[in-house]
Amino acid sequence: MKTFKILSLFLFAGLVLASCKKDDDGGNGGGAGEGTVTAKINGSTFTSLEIATVATEVTQAGVTTVRIQGSNSDGLGIVLTISPYEGTGTYEISDASVFTYATYIETDINNPLNSQSWNAPFESSGVVGEIKISEKTDTKIKGTFNFTAKNPDDNTTKQITEGSFNANFQ
Fold first, then answer.
1. What is the bridge-based pairing of β-strands 36-41 and 44-47?
2. How far apart are CA 28 and CA 137, in angstroms?
3. Buried-exposed string 109-134: b where 16+ CB fall within 10 A, e elsewhere
4. pTM to 2 decimals?
5. Phi-psi region of 154 (alpha: psi -120 to 50; beta: other; left: phi over 0)
6. Does residue 16 lie in a domain region?
7. pLDDT along the chain (170 residues), means of 10
8. Cα–Cα–Cα angle for 135, 136, 138, nearest 5°?
9. Can you give the chain as a three-state secondary structure string?
10. Residue 1 lies in a domain
11. Which domain holds residue 39?
12. Count of domains in the chain?
């Protein structure tokens, strides 16, 4: 019985330590801890899991594309794509620049065919947000974002505000 109590204590301590939130604010990248994407979705807080957050950089035909994505355990996700990526700075999300875009996804884990997505930009949207890259190294990228996205199935919109990321490159 004593061995069981000690083992239980270690298991509990491990769970508590594993569930602690990181306090790293990402420097100029906003409030995202290392390896995460954070935002408010219509006012509700979203934070991705470190294991489900990644950035990629691909150059083809002289055009560089950067993609940052993060998901949480509830099936919610944010994907940011910048093309052409030309270094730190601000990238508008606009129907005039459709290769820089953002998507918010609500995956129905029980029925993936019921999943919904909200996209920015959308038809006749004008400028609906921006992605700011504050730091990029060979291993990570940091910044902030905000956007208004529209669901093409039912025309509802979502306000994605106070977004930040501190993602590691794959």
1. antiparallel
2. 14
3. eeeeeeeebbbbbbeebeebbbbbbb
4. 0.81
5. alpha
6. no
7. 30 31 41 93 97 97 97 97 97 94 95 95 96 97 98 97 97
8. 150
9. CHHHHHHHHHHHHHHHHHHCCCCCCCHHHCCCCCCEEEEEECCEEEECCHHHEEEEEEEECCEEEEEEEEECCCCEEEEEEECCCCCCEEEEEECCECCCEEEEEECCCCCHHHCEEEEECCCCCCEEEEEEEEEECCCEEEEEEEEEEECCCCCCEEEEEEEEEEEEEC
10. no
11. 24-168
12. 1
Q: Report d(CA 68, CA 38) in Å as an integer.
A: 12
Find out whether the peptide bond into 152 is cis, omega within 30 degrees of 0: no
Residue 107: phi, psi to the nearest 5?
A: -85, 130
Contact call for residues 150 and 18 (beta carbons, < 8 A): no
CA distances from 76 to 17, 58, 86, 122 (A): 24, 25, 29, 20
Domain annotation covers residue 45: yes
Give the side-chain half-sphere CA count within 13 A for 143: 25
- Which residue in the block uniquely carries the two structure tokens 């409030």? 31
Cα 17 vs. chain centroid, distance in angstroms?
24
Q: Which two tokens stand for residue 49?
A: 């899991």
- In 3D, which of 129, 158, 128, 142 has the Cα closest to residue 38? 142
Confidence at residue 30, expressed as pLDDT on a 0 to 100 scale: 63
Flag whether 107 is in a domain.
yes
